[in-house]
């Protein structure tokens, strides 16, 4: 086999330039000089005998050949990282890295608690959490950049045959109101009452917004009739807006545990309606599954699906 016309360092540099958007920012992120970055790319282009970047544009823009190389570079580097994790695995959880992915709400409110429990048991394992949209996280699992993920939205159709998707746990969605709201005095409200509320919602492109609209529709609740006062891009912003009396909102129960305990938000129950969504665990069965991944799945993820009282007891015991 002839010598390869590129090195792993050159591929890492290529990815950094595209990610950072310029040679200078890539050099800063890799802690090398910009001339060194430029020289490596020039050598790479000479070795491959193709231009990688368009020279007429100030921004680092890839040519067609550059895009093709970037695609393969991502796969090559992901496989290298997978190899390193497999070798680290030989140390029997005395080291290594576990990369977990999660969609926005799950990653913000559930996963940090579960990662905390895992770190108490296996402090030598480096755990990384990546929180993005369900779509981005699904692609990261498919490409081997994430070991496993817990998501609340739909996996892209093109990945459903690639990924192993396992139903994990039900996540209840709560209607929250300011504690001073008139409806907060009632034990239950009717479905028709929803059309009288002013709502704070996530933007229409967010995965959880689509899930909420779908689940409401299954309960004969037409969310298109809601009076949307404003759209925000974070659950925390929505909770603060509701607390300030700006409107009502649907959020995951896992996101409001602290607020309910402190009595600063009201969970309004809708008569004869319980709104839930299914969380799923996704992995790529064709990728190496590390011992840390298997241990996290077996020992930690199962804590969330045990009966509430037992789960609370287990978590308290582990946190002591």
From TrEMBL:
Keywords: Chloroplast, DNA-binding, Plastid, Transcription, Transcription regulation
Keyword Chloroplast: yes
Top-rank lineage group of the source organism: Eukaryota
Domain HTH lysR-type, first and last residues per copy: 6-63
MF (Gene Ontology): DNA-binding transcription factor activity; transcription cis-regulatory region binding
Signal peptide, first to last residue: none
Function statement: Trans-acting transcriptional regulator of RuBisCO genes (rbcL and rbcS) expression.
PANTHER family: HTH-TYPE TRANSCRIPTIONAL REGULATOR, HTH-TYPE TRANSCRIPTIONAL REGULATOR CYSL
Family: Belongs to the LysR transcriptional regulatory family.
Name this polypeptide is given: Probable RuBisCO transcriptional regulator
Organism: Calliarthron tuberculosum
Taxonomic lineage of the native organism: Eukaryota, Rhodophyta, Florideophyceae, Corallinophycidae, Corallinales
């Amino acid at each position: 086999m002839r010598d390869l016309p590129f090195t792993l360092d050159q591929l890492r540099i290529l990815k950094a330039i595209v990610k950072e958007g310029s040679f200078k920012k890539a050099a800063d992120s890799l802690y090398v000089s910009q001339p060194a970055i430029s020289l490596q790319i020039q050598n790479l282009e000479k070795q491959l005998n193709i231009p990688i970047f368009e020279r007429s544009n100030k921004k680092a823009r890839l040519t067609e050949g550059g895009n093709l190389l970037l695609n393969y570079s991502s796969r090559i580097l992901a496989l290298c990282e997978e190899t390193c994790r497999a070798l680290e695995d030989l140390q029997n959880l005395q080291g290594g890295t576990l990369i977990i992915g999660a969609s926005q709400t799950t990653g913000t409110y559930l996963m940090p608690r579960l990662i905390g429990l895992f770190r108490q048991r296996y402090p030598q394992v480096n755990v990384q959490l990546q929180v993005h949209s369900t779509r981005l996280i699904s692609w990261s699992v498919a490409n081997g950049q994430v070991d496993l993920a817990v998501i609340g939205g739909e996996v892209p159709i093109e990945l459903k045959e690639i990924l192993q998707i396992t139903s994990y746990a039900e996540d209840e969605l709560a209607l929250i109101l300011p504690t001073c709201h008139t409806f907060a005095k009632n034990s239950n409200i009717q479905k028709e009452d929803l059309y009288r509320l002013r709502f704070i919602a996530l933007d229409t492109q967010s995965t959880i917004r689509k899930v909420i609209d779908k689940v409401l529709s299954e309960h004969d609740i037409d969310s298109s009739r809601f009076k949307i006062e404003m759209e925000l891009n974070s659950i925390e912003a929505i909770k603060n807006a509701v607390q300030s009396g700006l409107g009502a909102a649907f959020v995951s129960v896992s996101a409001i545990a602290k607020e309910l305990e402190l009595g600063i938000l009201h969970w309004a129950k809708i008569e004869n309606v319980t709104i839930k969504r299914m969380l799923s665990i996704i992995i790529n069965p064709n990728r190496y599954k590390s011992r840390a991944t298997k241990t996290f799945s077996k020992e930690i993820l199962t804590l969330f699906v045990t009966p509430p009282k037992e789960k609370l007891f287990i978590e308290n015991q582990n946190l002591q």
